[in-house]
Design a protein that fits this description.
heterodimer, A: 134 residues, mainly beta, five-stranded antiparallel β-sheet, three-stranded antiparallel β-sheet, globular, B: 383 residues, alpha/beta, Peroxisomal Thiolase, Chain A, domain 1, 12 strands, 36% helix, binds zinc ion
């Protein structure tokens, strides 16, 4: 994947602090954000920052990883339901696969996700780690 | 809108064609199809392809390929909808003829996937998912489907063994299909013990990486009647979409794009699911095939996997599903796959398919999809 500094900068809101959008009309929240609400087609979308904690809905241990991700393999790809019900897809880290269980509390942290070669841009983003029950 | 017919088909065997480049592979299928259509000259070329840009450093595929097969000057372009590109190319070619823009259109799919290591191909295939919210985290296409498979098995109480029946059957069919890539039989145990790609998806739950090309010649009724006494009609076409990201779906196990495309195609062809004799579904992974059977209305939600495990949709049932061996074992040269399906069903309706033959086919359906069921086309064919 080719990564440019401008692209990283543009994506900073969603990538670094879980910025989503909420439809002012029907209340649906979208992450990734949408310009127009897919549920009611309202254009009145407001930016909201999602809570960092949630529970693990499902995960897959990914052994065959795309080019450029070998150093992270195997990747535990998790589907997390944040408090409030919005789902986020991201790697689960700092945990052994056998310790994973459905419904466990996890919390978003900022981690390195990709390096564009030895001299290219380093991409940071959200990953989830195990968290204390609230 | 006027009627549209398939008057020619041409296929290459799917596999590792190290001796053939993109254009040679395409030409092999295209010239077969033109010969099959009595040598008629197409007025337009529509190409189904996903990976030429990312893996082959080639854009402008329409003009390149049209010129290579002696059609310099005709309208020519590529249609892209990830792994579903082929079906959308058929739908595009259909609309060019139905709308009277052209009388004869060549629709060809081609894909070269075997020149590079698996990780490179995996990165290219992952582009079917959301680059900025999924792929950047290293999410592979199998892993995204693995999440759907896990949720499906949990929600409906389906066992891993029940999910293994499908690939076993696909390999059985493919072993008799001369165009198939994986022409060998496997057992349930083979599926479960195969190397894990993205748990719980094993290598034998997944379509293989392969090179291949498939081509159709589509024509108006006037042209078709001159070429054949029994041309196969494209009776209905439907298309649908869903979010490319899986997280914002309103219901993670509702194959929305398949449902919408199917409803549209059934309505246009004036048929119902019970009228379909044979079907080719998009089983890039076992779970994709299962969800597709449900979206097409052949099983209620959560029931397709259990029905398959009990023997439903096999040769002799109605509909008979994926007698070609499916994406799983016939192979999945991604942008060409939708065209393989339509070609195979056309051959079945003509009684000329060289593999497992459909029992008494009158109406067939081809469904192909891009991404995790994000872009779907459904083509209904009638004898
Ligand atoms: Zn809304």
């Amino acid at each position: 994947m080719r990564i440019s500094p401008a692209r990283i900068w543009r994506e900073r809101g969603a990538r670094y602090r879980l910025e989503a959008v909420r439809c002012r009309k029907c209340g649906h929240v979208y992450y990734p954000p949408k310009k127009v609400c897919p549920a009611c087609r309202s254009r009145e979308m407001e930016k909201v920052v999602l809570p960092p904690k949630g529970k693990l809905l499902a995960w897959s241990i990914e052994y065959t990883v795309p080019e450029g991700y070998r150093k992270y393999a195997p990747i535990v790809l998790g589907l997390v339901e944040l408090q409030g019900g919005v789902r986020v897809l991201a790697p689960i880290v700092d945990v052994r696969p056998e310790e994973l269980r459905k419904g466990m509390m996890v919390e978003a942290v900022l981690r390195r996700v990709y390096e564009d070669g030895d001299e290219g841009v380093i991409v940071y983003g959200i990953k989830f780690v195990p968290a204390e029950q609230d | 809108m006027r009627k549209v017919f398939v008057v020619g088909v041409g296929l290459t065997k799917i596999g590792r064609h190290f001796d053939k480049d993109l254009r040679s592979l395409f030409a092999e299928a295209a010239l077969h199809a033109i010969d099959d259509a009595g040598g008629v000259k197409p007025q337009a070329v529509v190409v189904g392809n996903m990976l030429s840009s990312s893996l082959y450093q080639q854009d402008n595929l329409g003009a390149l390929l049209a010129d290579y097969i002696g059609l310099r000057g005709v309208a020519a372009f590529k249609v892209e909808a990830a792994c579903g590109s082929g079906g959308f190319a058929v739908a595009t070619g259909y609309s060019l003829v139905a709308s009277r823009l052209y009388d004869v259109v060549l629709v060809g799919g081609v894909e070269k996937m075997c020149d590079y290591p698996t990780a490179t191909v995996a990165a290219a295939l992952a582009q079917a998912a959301d680059a900025e919210y999924e792929v950047v985290y290293g999410a592979s296409f199998p892993a995204l489907n693995a999440l759907a498979m896990k949720l499906y098995m949990e929600t409906y109480g389906v066992s891993r063994e029940e999910m293994a029946e499908w690939p076993v059957r696909m390999h059985e069919y493919a072993s008799q299909n001369p165009y198939a890539q994986l022409r060998f039989r496997i057992t349930l145990e083979d599926v479960l013990k195969a190397p894990m790609v993205a748990e719980p998806i094993t290598l034998l739950d997944s379509a293989p990486i392969g090179d291949g090309a498939a081509t159709l010649v589509l024509a108006s009724e006037e042209v078709a009647r001159k070429l054949s006494d029994t041309p196969v009609e494209i009776a209905g076409v439907g298309m649908g979409s869903d979010s490319v990201d899986t997280t914002t779906r309103f219901d993670l196990l509702d194959p929305l794009s398949v449902r919408l495309a199917a409803e549209e195609a059934y309505r246009r062809a004036k048929v119902e699911p019970k009228d379909i004799d044979l079907v080719e579904v998009h089983d890039a992974f076992t779970i994709t095939g299962i969800l597709s059977l449900e979206g097409l209305g052949f099983a209620k939600r959560g029931e397709a996997a259990k029905l398959v495990a009990e023997g439903a949709f096999a040769k002799g049932d109605k509909p008979e599903a994926n007698l070609s061996g499916g994406l799983k074992a016939r192979g999945h040269p991604v942008g060409a796959t939708g065209i393989y399906q339509v070609a195979e069903i056309t051959m079945q309706l003509r009684g000329e398919f060289p593999g497992v033959k459909a029992s008494s086919p009158e109406v067939g359906l081809a469904q192909t999809t891009g991404g995790v069921l994000a872009s779907t086309s459904v083509i209904i064919l009638r004898r």
